[in-house]
């Protein structure tokens, strides 16, 4: 007798929980009302001082310790396994737990270090979490679909189940990273909240009334909880940046073709107008650099046909901070950011201006409305055929956040229609690029703007089922720009009251306004993104690190 | 009253001819029977010694003279205009002639030189011909469609007619190049022979019984005739390499995203599974480098959203000729190359082996049959809708070479079907890439093969309406590899008799065998391509230059 989808999902959910050692299980899971913020002092009660020290060190700090022998890979790994186990119980953020394999790998690295008096690679002993699109040997990939459980990407008997490995998985191991868990995703990956029928809704650790974001939401929650120093997500419309921002973390959305996507599971694989990209979410900007640079040191262009031969370029990190200029998007012309997001953008602008940087208004042609119209067409090319096929594998229902995909597949775009979108996209990229070039005539330095400051979403984070507007993230995907998320502040019911006399310009504007509640949001992280030109990962990360410092200085 | 397509085509054909100065018009155009080969001594009768000297100097040699002031831009330009005018009369290779504008531009460069005692750019005074996909200010672009005459890409009243310029056109002018003509293409660009209803069938200058190839066939004929030292074509299935090979010239098919395609006219623009790329055809390998390097010096990635930030990398030109290893494709498993092509491949292999290079058999997985099956699907995505729409603009009939597009549009691929092709393509690229990596275990050097020697087509050139098999060029497009065409020898009725006892493996094999005739082909150029990995333009051109030298040494 075949199991029902509910039985399969429950068995999987229980199996994940069973991977948590008894001593790490919490006696009671508080509700959001009982415990809104589970970071910081709340989680500290469950951890040793050493565990706190380790898990509150960023990736760069960790590898300084592990590559010098100050910390063993095993103690670091165990600390993060413990904190990740707590994270999952409080937040529903994991889809795969493989702590035993991680500790065994860490032990092997320690043995290597003991024998060779040298680290195995630049990421020696660094725990790295992975979104559940990465295939890892010995571990399943469900990608949030009940119908994928026990299969390889929905197919049975391929021989690849728990054997095949994504390219970056192998590269991370070769670099010395310790893999220990895979994080939750929304089914289809096409929503900014993370929810599936296996582990349910992923909560925001800073504010458990809110979503951790999506689609790399498990990753965002885990890193935000410091259950991981750095993890990898993917982004086709904001899926790295949204959870990074919602959890007050740093996140890199590189341009397509920079980091290897080879061998990853995906939704509607083969849509190639706007490509999903892989990138890190971390607790510091310099950690994004460590990971990106380390991955590029493996020459991924020799193993991924879509990666360009662009090694890490140290000369492009050398930013002249006396000459940096910024563009700023305070409003995209469609949806008004909610008060805490507006305040965060203003804080960044003021801090930069105080540091003598020029910040100019960003008023591009084409406007974002035109760009978004093009981008959203790519989301419905296949009439959600892939989504419906995936639901049908188990008979599970779609989560409410996917209502826009309908009850059955819609009409598909044909080749001529897709070609027309591709042409429009390229024309818009060209026009936007020339707008960017033209800012040279507007800046005092006479050079084009270096990066653009922009919200990531209208809200600091999303309330459940209320994430309706993706315009602040999606424009970057259409243009294929580099973006780095930088945390700025926390939402405050005192500083960020509801806009009085608000008059919505359109339905989306009204929805964003209505979704904001100062009490619910009080204490939630608020972040912005710095958007650099295509393939400017070195420069954009360097500027993000600098801006974070400027913000820190301004706060003290 | 609206003109018939025949009237429009005739008027355009006559207008092109009228642009040829009276003194450059030939009294009589010999038939192929009367004059098979119109290169060399035949054309010399119409030219002055100085004109011969100039037009038989390669692009690098020309810029040495023009940038030092030894030759004026005007004298160089006039010499090539004259030879191009003769080429067109004998070969039907031009769609646009703008000698007056060219001479005026050349004069301006000369004035600049006189004033500044320095060239205006690295291509100062170098005549460069362009395939009729480039938009040039003041000049029409028909792209071989009668229905495009008097329009901008088939649309009337756009305001762009004869005003809009392709990015590379502008860049070439900025570099000091002199633009003077645009070369003929087949309507739709999707055939390896060059024929349209405006100027007719483009002949091969070395052997006027044969096609000059396509779709950059006007370019191939013109450069082959030395009516241009270097010109630009495009390649989505062999369209640079086929005419380069058929005319015994050098041609570069770069990987996508290296040279800027921005603002070019195209067929079925927006098909983005396999992108058309732009690249030079020239009389020497070092000229390919000059042009590619010069274009990249303009930083085209700041003006073309599809160009990657890959400047010319001089360090990648530094090939160690003591360690080069080669793969060789003598047969692709589908169609047997005709005797002169087999001999050319053998000549290259023997010359390299004589120079102590290792040449190993190339037996990739996936095999080429699988690759071609994927590639050819992209050709029919839109059921030839774009082609039929373009014919319909004027009511002109398709040329016989396009019979496979049918009398009306066929069914289109939908989004899911296109996505499936994209996935298969990427998987094949990955598998092929790993095969290439694996050749490290087969070579004595322990490094993977540097470049692969391959035919470009089964024949030295095509007989009219007999170009049926594109497998030897198309595999490179699917894999997005760099390829450089190198001329090797000429066809010989003595050395290359018809294969006796030939047994065809399939219809294509039989057709290629049947198309070969030692008498017709006697004297025709025979070339091969050297295929490098993706984005290895520097290295592949350097090896091509080296191989050309090895061949020359072997011949003497």
TrEMBL record, chains A, B:
<dbReference type="Pfam" id="PF01425">
    <property type="entry name" value="Amidase"/>
</dbReference>
<feature type="binding site">
    <location>
        <begin position="236"/>
        <end position="239"/>
    </location>
    <ligand>
        <name>substrate</name>
    </ligand>
</feature>
<dbReference type="InterPro" id="IPR020556">
    <property type="entry name" value="Amidase_CS"/>
</dbReference>
<comment type="similarity">
    <text>Belongs to the amidase family.</text>
</comment>
<feature type="active site" description="Charge relay system">
    <location>
        <position position="131"/>
    </location>
</feature>
<protein>
    <recommendedName>
        <fullName>amidase</fullName>
        <ecNumber>3.5.1.4</ecNumber>
    </recommendedName>
</protein>
<dbReference type="InterPro" id="IPR036928">
    <property type="entry name" value="AS_sf"/>
</dbReference>
<feature type="active site" description="Acyl-ester intermediate">
    <location>
        <position position="239"/>
    </location>
</feature>
<feature type="binding site">
    <location>
        <position position="189"/>
    </location>
    <ligand>
        <name>substrate</name>
    </ligand>
</feature>
<feature type="active site" description="Charge relay system">
    <location>
        <position position="215"/>
    </location>
</feature>
<keyword id="KW-0378">Hydrolase</keyword>
<dbReference type="GO" id="GO:0004040">
    <property type="term" value="F:amidase activity"/>
</dbReference>
<feature type="domain" description="Amidase">
    <location>
        <begin position="75"/>
        <end position="540"/>
    </location>
</feature>
<feature type="binding site">
    <location>
        <position position="215"/>
    </location>
    <ligand>
        <name>substrate</name>
    </ligand>
</feature>
<dbReference type="InterPro" id="IPR023631">
    <property type="entry name" value="Amidase_dom"/>
</dbReference>
